[in-house]
Structure formats: structure tokens, C-alpha cells
Write a structure and sequence with these properties.
This protein is an alpha+beta fold. The chain has helices spanning about 5-10, 90-95, 180-205; strands at about 65-70, 75-80, 85-90, 100, 105-110, 125, 140-145, 155-165, 165-175. The model has no long low-confidence stretch (mean pLDDT about 85).
Length: about 210
């Protein structure tokens, strides 16, 4: 398991915005499925595809809409040009669950490593502050689930992200020896952040 699934669950989702003077910013969401619609002659540019049965090019822009209820934990995912929809939960998508406070950090859940039964998050994104929506600036580390001896659940940690065009590079990794709990892994992240802050302060003092 890597942190990429958790990052994907929290980052680069654009919220629907109300007007600045909106008095009741609550969304009502509906959907309509119209299968097998004929593309009329003047309905847009022509499409081509190696598959004669395919209705679009072999490359296309995919849009995914996520509508969720934080109260009941239900999530609807709508995506396509080829229309698909499914109903799932915040526990499955890894977004919409409340963060937990561990070792002075806020841990935001990601999707489970295996999406079955009561499997918990397979990774957590670490933030110093509790926020409504995570941004790249908020993320300082991650705690990631793995498998140890005889399939036991273990945890690894990374700290110091550098985001580059959809890819993240971590400055510090906890190494081969795993942690037995998310708390221990989060403490490692916090220690790395404290050490980095101390090093920065020392360098600044020496430069004065």
C-alpha cells in the first residue's frame, strides 16, 4: 500500500461553489441516465475509434463527480462519458470520515487496503492543523498500512512531501522496520517534523 490512494481521495477535488450571497448553501443533487442516445449529425465533432462498436475516441477526458453526506456516510460516484454510477460509503472512498488526533498531528483516513468487511483505512495523511479540506500545503506526512510476518498488519511512515505535477516525493521514510500501530508511526512523523524545525532554527541562528 502506498500513500497515493489516500492523496487521490483528498486532493484535486474541486468543490461546487455557491454564489457569494447564497443564503442557504445546501446542494440538492439528482441524476438522469439516458442510455443509447443517437449522436445527431450536428451534435458535435465527429469521433473515431479502432473499435467499430465504440462511441468515442480511444483517448477522452474522464470526469468524476463525488456527492457525499458526512452525516450518514453515504457516497455517490458518477463518472463517464460512458455513464456509470455506484453507491458506496465514506469508509470505502477514504474521504468524509473525521480525522483523529494522534501524537500532536491530525490523521485523515484514506481508502482501505482491502475493501471488504470492516477493514479500516489503509493509509492516513498527516496534518498539523484540523481543516475541512486538505490541500498540499496541509500535508506533512503519511502513515501507511503494510503486512508483516504471517500477514500481521504493520505500519510505515513518510514525512516531508514535495509535490510535483501529480507526483509526491517524500524526504524521509521510516525504513524497513515497521511500526506495530498507527500511533507509533505518527510519533515517528512528528519526531521528523520536530527535528526538521530544530535544524532550520539552528541554521537561521548561525546565519545571524
Amino acid at each position: 500500500m502506498s500513500s497515493s490512494a489516500a492523496l487521490s481521495a483528498h486532493l484535486d477535488w474541486n468543490p461546487f461553489r455557491h454564489q457569494p450571497d447564497c443564503a442557504k448553501p445546501v446542494w440538492e443533487v439528482g441524476q438522469r441516465a439516458e442510455p443509447d442516445i443517437l449522436r445527431v449529425r450536428r451534435g458535435g465533432p465527429e469521433h473515431a475509434c479502432p473499435n467499430e462498436e465504440c462511441g468515442h475516441r480511444d483517448h477522452y477526458d474522464r470526469v468524476t463527480v463525488r456527492v457525499l453526506c458526512r452525516s450518514c456516510g453515504t457516497v455517490h460516484l458518477i463518472s463517464g462519458e460512458e455513464y456509470t454510477t455506484r453507491t458506496t460509503t465514506t469508509a470505502s472512498t477514504g474521504y468524509g470520515q473525521p480525522p483523529k488526533r494522534v501524537a500532536g498531528l491530525w490523521l485523515y483516513p484514506g481508502p482501505p487496503l482491502l475493501d471488504w468487511g470492516d477493514a479500516g483505512p489503509g493509509a492516513y495523511l498527516c496534518s498539523r492543523e484540523k481543516v475541512t479540506r486538505l490541500s498540499e500545503d496541509d500535508i506533512v506526512g503519511a502513515v501507511v498500512e503494510g503486512r508483516g510476518k504471517r500477514g500481521a498488519t504493520v505500519w510505515h511512515a513518510v514525512a516531508g512531501p514535495e509535490f510535483r505535477s501529480g507526483y509526491v516525493r517524500w524526504a524521509k521514510r521510516s525504513g524497513e522496520k515497521p511500526f506495530a500501530s498507527t500511533t507509533a508511526a505518527a510519533k515517528w512523523v512528528a519526531a521528523q517534523l520536530d527535528a526538521a524545525a530544530t535544524a532550520t532554527e539552528t541554521k537561521e541562528d548561525q546565519g545571524q
